Structure formats: C-alpha cells, structure tokens
C-alpha cells in the first residue's frame, strides 16, 4: 500500500473522476454517498459522471456500522460488481472510512477513490489508508489499512458547509500545526476558519494535508511514527465514545480539539510543554469550539474508553505528547491519576 | 504481505506455538477453533499451551458467515484484545479463513498464525493469505488478502481424519499436481490417499504445499499468475453454491475434484488437453469421489454462480485451463454453450 496514491486538487470533480476511470480502463463504477450529499451534490455532478450507479446510505457516524456495511456489500453483489469494478466514495469521513473498508473487502478488494466533501474528510479521513466501521459502541474497532488509489480534493464542496463542519475539519488542521512546528501553527491560530478568507483556508488545507501525507508515507500501518497523528485522539475518542453513549454524538473534530486540550495538559505535566502555549491553545478552543461537558462521575468511563482505544497496546494508556510545538513524543504512558488531574484541568481551562 | 511467512513442519504443535509466541514477545493470545476441534484436540494440546484464551465457534462452512465473524470480533473486544495481541487459528479451512479475516480486521489488524487440522486446510487454506467469509449465499464474497505470520503443519492431526476429509484435501493436491507437471502428478494418481502409507502422504503434502507457495509468492494478490491455482474452482465453486442452496453443503475438495473434471473437459475442447489424460483423471475421481448429481435443469443456476465467481472480471466466464499436465493458461473465456457441453460430458464421464 501507500505506493502510488494520487492526490488531485481541482475544482472540476466530475472531470477528475472521469479521467481516473478512463486511466483505469473505464471499469463499471459505483458511487457511494450519503443521503445529504446525494441531495446536495449529486444533481450537479451527476450528468457529467456518465454511466455510474449510486449506493446511498443514511448519514452520520451512528450509521457507520456493520448493518450499513453489509448493505453496501449486498448492493455491490446484487448489482454484479466484480473485482475489476471501481468505487468512488463521495462524502465525509463516514463515507470514505466505511466505503474504503467495503471496497477493500468486497471480493477481497476492489479499487476505490475518495472524494471528500467536508473539510474534515479532506484533511483527515480521505488520506492515509485508514478504513473501518464502529463496532459495539467502539469507534473504528473493525477495519483495514487500505489506501484509496486516488483522492480528489475540491474546495467547491466547502462553500456550503455549515460553520460547525468547517470548525470540525479545522481542529485536525490545528493538530497538524501542533505537530509541524511554530510557523504553520501560528498562522493557523491567527486565522478564523469560519469568517476568514476561503482562498487562505484552502492554502492552509493543502499545507495541512501534506503534513499528514509526509508522516503516513513513513509508517503506513502505524507501527511507530504515524502515532504522532494520534495527538488529541486518545482523549478525543473517549469523549466521542462517551457522547455516543449519551445518545448525542459529537463531531469528530470537536472531540479532537477538546482531546488536544487534555493532552496538552498532560504534555505540560509530563513533558514540560510551555504553560503559555497551553493556555493560548485552550483559549482558542474555548472561543471557537466551546466545551464538552464532563464531571468527575464520567472519569471511570473515560478511562475505560481510553484503555480500549485501538492504539492502546496494553493495560496502560498510551498518548502522543509534545515537549513543545513541533516536538513530538509517541508512546507516552500516563497513569490513571495523572489523567484524572488532566481532566480536572481541562474543566478549569474550559470553564466547566 | 507475503514477505516473511514461516512454514513449520512439526509433530510438536504446542512447542511450535509457544516458540512463535515467545519470539513475538509473548503477547496475549486467543485460540480460535471450532467445537469439534476443541473437543478432539484441545484437551491434549491445552495444558502445554500455557496462558491462552479460547474462542470456540460452531463448525462447518454454513457458519463461516457474518454472524460468526461478528461474534469473534465481539469476543476479542470484550476480552480486551489489543493491536499487539495474537490469534492462533486452530482448525480446518473454515477456521483459518474466517479467523484470518477476523484478525486482519480487528483494530485494523492483529498478528495471527494458522494451525491447520485437516489435510485440506494444510494444503490449501492455511497458506496463501486468502481470508474471508461467505456472504448472501456466495462463497468467500467478503474478505482480504492477509498472510498468517506463520503456519504450523503437523501430521498429528491427520491420523484421526475420516476418509472423506482426507479425500477432500487430496483433491487440492491433485490440482497442484496437474499444475506442477507429469512427475508429481503421476505419483499422486498412483497413490491411494485413504489406505496408502501415511509417511508417503506427508511427503506428497510437503511437495504440494511448495507448489502453492511458489505460485503465491510471485503474485500474492491474484493479479495474474496466481489464477493458475483456480483450476477446477470456477466449476467447483458453482457446485458448492448449488449444493449449499440445496441445503446439502459439499466438502470443498470434492467440489474441486468434480470441478477439475469439468474444466479438463473444457481444456480438452478449447486447448487440446489430451483425451487419454482426461479419461484417466475422470476415472480416478469417479472411483474415489463418486459424482455430484446434476441435470440440465441445474445449468442456468450453475452458469449464474460461475458468472458471480469473485475471480470473474466481466459478464464472461473465466477459467484456468491446461494444454497438458503442467502447461497452464489463465484467463480463458468460455461461452455458455461450451460450458453446457462440458457439463454434459462431465455427466457422461461420471456416469450420471
């Protein structure tokens, strides 16, 4: 895997898809998308795509499950898809994650390309080869490492995104900035993703996708270095799982923003991450994202979710932490007591 | 994948598993097996295996499905398996296929080793990296290419196998012989797998596994050459699917033996495979395997199953055929009418 993924920035999505199909020998093609994207986007795209079939799934992370996955396999089967067929995952992270897994397991794997329609999808899910579904209440518990043969990134989808969607994607960009270094990070913190200039957002996005691409290329199956990308995700996934259990699922990026606050607190406690940078980041998050409400009674569940995180390799809980912006340490073990202190401080910083 | 698979021939299975665990850093280990193997084998092995947990699934191809797979994922999850955990698939092809897929998708992939307990499993399923489950009535419709990190082959399991199980495995050995050439093939046709000497069977088995290993190493994901191994399987899988629909599942090897007869008929018709060799092979199969009953009314269903075979890349039906023993041609398209004639001749040769 990883070898020859094409990353295409364009405003002519239909043209890019047609080109990719042609260079693959014009295979029968299925477009996987969700009801929202289908309603909003496919009308415009549809005519120019030529002879394709649609598989439309219900939207949202709550539907990224085994039932929907089995439905996709069944549709491919009933429609007569073969190992030479192609799938185009047109949607947010739910569609690209689940579609990538469906494609890479149907008949032991058919070709697929990702066309992210959200900022989060473009910066995070569509690139990097992680595919999968939630299972039994745990996020991405079942899946595979399998690269899309191409990713088509277009700003044409972002114009109509609600502010929450833009912020959700921007959280992953902030995370990439924290990993990349002061320069990129400062530019991100100085920018307002909701009201800021779209061209500038797009140029920040390209930079951000490159951060991820560089890291993934060195460690496609997450044996080491790639865990850097996990910054904010051990705590963030636990917030997501808790919110899911409460029946009020979180946007992934929001969970990552709040998870980054928790993990920068841990970075401060364990690795001397500068206090001033911690407070500046927390203030940015509190201003743009608000807070995810937790109290002490949630701590046992949060610790349990962190222990179950798929990146966790033992009974200990493993974090990616920072010594400073741009200085990453992977495989940092933190004890339950330290994590509880960090959750306390998260609540202080978020004014909960 | 494919890079570093260990193939271990031994009579000390527990010792080999312990050694493999140790060299992997003694990870928490789950043994996946079925009820029959658990009853017959695990008592003897159990004590020497040390600290392992068992996942016991109901036996048979009919249980190689999404429900059983989800049960395996759930057990791993509830037992707290992590990405560093190890799975040992101890059983026949159903267990190694399904267990390999469960392991390679749980948390996007944990390490697994295969310990085939049947001749068919040893010669076919355990080596080569094909994993998966049946779906919606089609064989192996969902799965992945994922190599076991090691395969432990032991003759200690074969002593107690019923004759049908031995014959089922031997059919794949016959197929490997047809691919490899006259020498190996003649020795196989001269041997009676049920009453013949066990030591000789084992030495034929090693030879046969090497045929598969050589072919797979050159084309792990079945883009070309590996399709040679598909000899007998386009027709064979169709027989299996038909039998499954009739509610009387076939042993895989029997289906392959009969499938080889159909495809040697096609080889004779399309590629000039010698008539004498065809008749000799058909007589061996009729003597040892009997016949799978079909009549004309089954032809449409059989053609439909062949068209749906996952190796089939278009509306045409694709076969691996032989010009003579040891001379393989992949990607041979045969028309529906020729296939019907071949099915007629199969019935003649099998005295149906």
Question: Domains counted in the coordinates of chain A: how many?
Answer: 2
Order of helices and strands of chain A: EHEHHEHEHEHEEEHHHHHHHEEH
What distance lies between the first and last C-alpha atoms of chain A, to the nearest angstrom?
A: 44 Å
- Trace the largest sheet of chain A across and list its strands: 1-8-5-4-2-3
What structural keywords apply?
Dehydroquinate synthase-like, alpha domain, 2 domains, Rossmann fold, homodimer, six-stranded parallel β-sheet, 14 helices
Summarize the structure.
The first copy, chain A, is α/β, with parallel strands linked by helices and 352 residues long.
Question: What is the element layout, followed by pairings?
Answer:
Two copies of one chain form a homodimer.
Chain A (H helix, E strand, L loop, with lengths): L5 E4 L3 H11 L5 E6 H6 L1 H8 L2 E6 L8 H13 L7 E6 L1 H13 L5 E6 L2 H7 L4 E6 L2 E8 L4 E4 L9 H18 L1 H8 L8 H21 L14 H13 L6 H20 L3 H15 L9 H10 L8 E8 L2 E8 L1 H14 L3
Parallel strand pairs in A: 1-8, 2-3, 2-4, 4-5, 5-8
Antiparallel strand pairs in A: 6-7, 9-10
Structure description:
The structure is a homodimer of 352-residue chains. Chain A has helices at 13-23, 35-40, 42-49, 66-78, 93-105, 119-125, 163-180, 182-189, 198-218, 233-245, 252-271, 275-289, 299-308, 336-349; strands at residues 6-9, 29-34, 52-57, 86-91, 111-116, 130-135, 138-145, 150-153, 317-324, 327-334. Chain A has 352 residues and is of the alpha/beta class. Chain A has two domains: 6-160, Rossmann fold, CATH 3.40.50.1970; 163-349, Dehydroquinate synthase-like - alpha domain (Dehydroquinate synthase-like, alpha domain), CATH 1.20.1090.10. The interface between A and B is medium-sized, with 35 and 35 residues.
């Amino acid at each position: 895997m990883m070898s020859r993924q094409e990353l295409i920035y364009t405003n002519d999505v239909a043209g890019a898809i047609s080109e990719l199909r042609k260079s693959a020998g014009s295979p029968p093609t299925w477009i996987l998308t969700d009801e929202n994207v289908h309603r909003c986007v496919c009308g415009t795209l549809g005519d120019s795509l030529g002879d394709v079939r649609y598989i439309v799934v219900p939207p949202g992370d709550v539907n990224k499950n085994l039932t929907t996955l089995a439905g996709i396999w069944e549709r491919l089967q009933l429609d007569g898809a073969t190992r030479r067929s192609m799938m185009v995952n047109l949607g947010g992270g739910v569609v690209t994650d689940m579609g990538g897994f469906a494609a890479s397991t149907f008949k032991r794997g058919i070709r697929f390309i990702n066309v992210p329609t959200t900022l989060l999808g473009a910066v995070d899910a569509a690139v990097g080869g992680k595919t999968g579904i939630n299972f039994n209440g745990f996020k991405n518990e079942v899946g595979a490492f399998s690269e899309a043969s191409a990713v088509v990134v277009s700003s044409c989808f972002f114009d109509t995104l609600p502010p929450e969607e833009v912020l959700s994607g921007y959280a992953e960009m902030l995370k990439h900035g924290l990993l990349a270094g002061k320069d990129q990070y400062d530019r991100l913190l100085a920018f307002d993703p909701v009201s800021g200039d779209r061209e500038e957002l797009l140029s920040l996005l390209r930079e951000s996708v490159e951060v991820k691409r560089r890291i993934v290329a060195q460690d496609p199956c997450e044996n080491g270095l790639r865990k850097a990308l996990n910054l904010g995700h051990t705590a963030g996934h636990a917030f997501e799982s808790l919110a899911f259990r409460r029946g009020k699922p979180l946007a992934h990026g929001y969970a990552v923003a709040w998870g980054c606050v928790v993990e920068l607190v841990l970075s401060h406690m364990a690795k001397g991450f500068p206090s001033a940078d911690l407070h500046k980041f927390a203030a940015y998050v509190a201003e743009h994202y608000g807070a995810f409400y937790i109290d002490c009674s949630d701590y046992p569940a949060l610790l349990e979710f962190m222990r179950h995180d798929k990146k966790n390799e033992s009974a200990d809980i493993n974090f990616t932490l920072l010594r400073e912006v741009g200085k990453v340490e992977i495989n940092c073990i933190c004890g339950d007591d330290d994590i509880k202190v960090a959750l306390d401080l998260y609540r202080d910083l978020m004014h909960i």
